Amino acid sequence: MSGDSVRRQIVGRGIPLPGNDIDTDRIIPARFLKSVTFEGLEQHVFADDRVQAPDHPFNEDRYQGASILVVGLNFGCGSSREHAPEALRRWGIRGIVGGSFAEIFFGNATALGVPCLAVAPKDVEWLMGAVAHQPEREIVLDVEAERVRLGDRTIPARLPEAARKQLLTGTWNATAVLLEAGEEIARVAQGLPYLSGY
Fold first, then answer.
1. Exposed (0-12), middle (13-18) or buried (19+): which is 82, by Cβ within 10 Å?
2. What percent of the chain has pLDDT over 90?
3. Check: CATH 1.10.260.30 for 6-171?
4. Contact 15/132 with Cβ under 8 angstroms?
């Protein structure tokens, strides 16, 4: 796999998003899912929340350009739309740290190369406060070592081993994996009677 696909560490400024059970309809409301591609989804991330709360973190200038999202428990619950992590990725989010993640959201994020590291609720609370207090500081999501660092504080994190392996080897990118196996795919295809016998 190419080095571009490997996710050992994600480094960037943080954006805190308080609250638990933030579902995919809040991340990207259903009315924005009409397009054939994911193009432009980033413009509608948290669209309704941002209108209802002008001080929403995604509206604040101090968090623009942030790439590490800090969330609470059960982030990404609700419908299984892959548009939610795709919209976040297109907005600029490269990694997420939180208390826990909905299973399908977690899988969809991993399939985009966006690591989701789980930490203890007390550590989420500390991270949110630290980022809000000093948004210019960088967070390090260390996928390889399963930890999160901010300043001189290191927080243990959890990541299912299968997802961790995909991120560390770059095999989260299914299209790239298929392209690398082009010769093998062609060889197998030639042996299939319904592909080569007609």
1. middle
2. 74
3. no
4. no
Torsions phi, psi for 60 (to 5 deg): -80, 130
How far from chain centre, in Å, is Cα 12?
13
Question: What are the phi and psi torsion angles at 75 (to 5°)?
Answer: -70, 135
Q: Residue 128 contacts by C-beta under 8 Å, 6 or more apart in sequence?
A: 16, 18, 70
Across the beta sheet with 153-156, the strand order is: 116-118, 95-98, 68-71, 9-17, 138-142, 147-150, 153-156
Residues 52-69 have pLDDT tens digits of 999 999 999 999 999 999
Q: Is 160 exposed, middle or buried (0-12, 13-18, 19+ CB in 10 A)?
A: middle
**Residue 1 to residue 180: CA distance in whole angstroms:** 8
Give the span between the Cα atoms of 6 and 9, in whole angstroms.
9
Query: What distance lies between CA 28 and its chain's CA centroid?
Result: 14
pTM comes to 0.88
Neighbours of 169 (CB within 10 A): 13
